[in-house]
């Protein structure tokens, strides 16, 4: 079965960086588009970044708010997708989720202090 396990969240000061990881299992990783979403308290879940399948050449795409601060990447040999986040602000505080189609991981908390 599909399993997605996120890690790498934590507490960071504004302007700092974090790198999130998501290890996937239960499917042929390279064949699927992988995405990151986030959900802040009291807000709806929103799209952060995506990495296309091998058929798309693993093209990348981002939510409008990212503005060059985040980079998604993947290591197909490790079945892992990453989200490098730089220049974090308090608005980035949220639970970050790894996603494949209808499947989500348990999430990892990112808290940015002012």
Q: Could you please describe the fold and organization of this structure?
A:
The structure is a single chain. The chain has 114 residues and is mostly beta strands. The protein has strands at residues 3-7, 10-13, 18-25, 34-39, 46-51, 60-62, 70-75, 80-85, 94-100, 103-104, 108-113. Strands 2, 4, 5, 6, 9, 10 and 11 form a seven-stranded mixed sheet that branches. A four-stranded antiparallel sheet has the order 1-3-8-7, with no helix packed on it. Strand 4 (34-39) and strand 5 (46-51) form a beta hairpin. The radius of gyration is 13 Å and the shape is globular. The model has no long low-confidence stretch (mean pLDDT 97).
Which stretches of 5+ consecutive residues score pLDDT under 50? none
Total DSSP helices: 0
What is the helix content? under 10%
The computed structural class is: mainly beta
Q: Please state the average pLDDT score.
A: 97
CA radius of gyration is: 13 Å
Shape: globular
Through-space gap between termini: 40 Å
Order of helices and strands: EEEEEEEEEEE
Proportion of residues in β-strands: over 45%
Main sheet summary:
7 strands, mixed
Record field, number of beta strands: 11
Features:
four-stranded antiparallel β-sheet, globular, 52% strand, mainly beta, 114 residues, seven-stranded mixed β-sheet
